[in-house]
Every structure is written in C-alpha cells, then in structure tokens.
Design brief:
This protein has a single domain, classed as Helix Hairpins, CATH 1.10.287. It is mainly alpha-helical and about 240 residues long. It starts with 11 loop residues before the first helix and ends with a helix. α4 packs antiparallel against α5. It contains nine helices and two strands; from the N terminus they run ααααααβαβαα.
Length: about 240
C-alpha cells in the first residue's frame, strides 16, 4: 500500500470522503452481520469489510500521535483476531479474540470521532458533523455489542433470547442486534440481559445512548451558527 493512502487527510474534501467511506462500511458491518450465518465463506467476506474501518482509522489518526497508537493497537488486535477467527470459526477462544479486536478498534475510533464533535475543525460544515455523529452512534452500538458478546462467552447465560428454545449461549450476532435495540431504547424483549453484569451493561448502554443523542442534538443546535458560518466560508472563497 502506498504511503499516500496512509497519511492524514489534509483537505475538507478528503476528510468528508473518508467519512462517507466509514459510514458506508459501518452500515454494512453493523447491519449486514446476518450474512455470517450463511457459512464460513460469508463470514470471511464480512470480516474483510473491516478493511475500510482500519483504513479510515489509521489515516485519520496519522496526524495525531495521541490517537495513533490506540488506533494502531486496536487495528492490529482486530487483524490478528479476525484472521484467527476466520481460520477457526467454531473456536470460542478465536471468537473472543475477534470480538476483543472489534471492541478495541471501535472504541479507539469512537474516542477520535467524539473529539471531532467536541472540537470540530475550523473548516468543518454541518454535514461533516452529522456524518461524524452518525458514525459515532454506530460505533457505540458496535462497542457495546462486542462487550456483551464477550460477556456471554465468558459467562454463558448472561443473556437470554425469548424466541429461541435452545439452551446454547447466544451467538455474537444476536448480541450485536440486542445492542442496537438497547441503544435505541426500543426494548423488543427478545434478547434480554439475565445476569447482574449483563443488566448493568444494558443499563449503561441505554443511558449512554440517550445522552449521546441529547448531547449531539444540543451540540448541533448550539452551533446552529454553522449555517451562517457555512455561508460566510462560501462567500469568503468566492471573494
């Protein structure tokens, strides 16, 4: 891979293009996981989509050493865990390695995007903040989903699916689904936490999800001057 693909994006257009790539990749990953039920080949194809997330994370963090190393560690963890899981998809240990890598990379990337929301670049437009907010929300659900799946692997029975009659531990796909149901406070009642730690995690996710939306809305309303600023930036460039 050439160095031009790894250095930090410098222009507004480059940053926005990367955000669109990240958003599209996250949509495929966070909502396209049912394809992994189609067999090992589909699972490997699904894991390959994470290349888009890794590419975005490394390029974006390249200009900030404080974020670069956590992102690099998370990326390496996901690559190692993903390759291990691709080779041994029936192994609980390999599954745990893959989930741990997912959680680390998404958490590191979530912190990076949260900082952009708090201190946006001076040339950022409203659309850029919206893209960052949506990506951060999707990452938030992914982090809690991976942590919940790790909890279920370590302590089977932490979660219960009221639709399934099997007594087997829930698959990570079910916990990813349950994470977004909890994050959005829909509460369908199918995948529910059964243990004390699972209930605590679900409560935390519901609170964080609600606060995230409230803070983002307040932030966007608070910078409603972005619309005026966008006009001033456009006018300045024309002049």
């Amino acid at each position: 891979m050439s160095s031009s693909l790894l250095h930090a994006p410098r222009t507004l257009h480059q940053r926005r293009t990367l955000l669109w790539v990240l958003l599209c990749t996250l949509v495929v990953l966070q909502f396209g996981y049912p394809v992994t039920l189609g067999g090992p080949g589909w699972t490997i194809a699904y894991l390959c989509v994470y290349v888009g997330v890794i590419w975005y994370a490394i390029r974006t963090a390249a200009s900030n050493p404080r974020h670069y190393w956590p992102v690099l560690v998370g990326a390496c963890g996901l690559i190692a865990g993903g390759v291990w899981f691709a080779a041994q998809q029936d192994s609980r240990t390999a599954t745990a390695g893959m989930l741990a890598g997912m959680a680390m990379l998404q958490a590191a990337l979530l912190v990076t995007l949260a900082e952009v929301l708090v201190r946006p670049p001076v040339d950022a437009r409203t659309i850029d903040l919206l893209l960052v907010a949506v990506c951060a929300y999707l990452l938030l659900g992914g982090v809690f989903g991976a942590v919940g799946a790790l909890l279920e692997l370590g302590a089977p029975g932490s979660y219960v699916d009221n639709i399934l009659t099997s007594t087997e531990p829930l698959a990570w796909q079910s916990l990813l689904y349950g994470s977004y149901v909890t994050l959005s406070t829909l509460g369908f009642g199918d995948v529910v936490p059964a243990s004390a730690w699972a209930r605590s995690l679900a409560s935390l996710e519901a609170v964080v999800g609600t606060l995230f939306l409230a803070v983002v809305i307040a932030r966007l309303v608070g910078v409603a001057g972005f619309a005026d600023r966008d006009k001033r930036l456009s006018q300045t460039r024309k002049d």
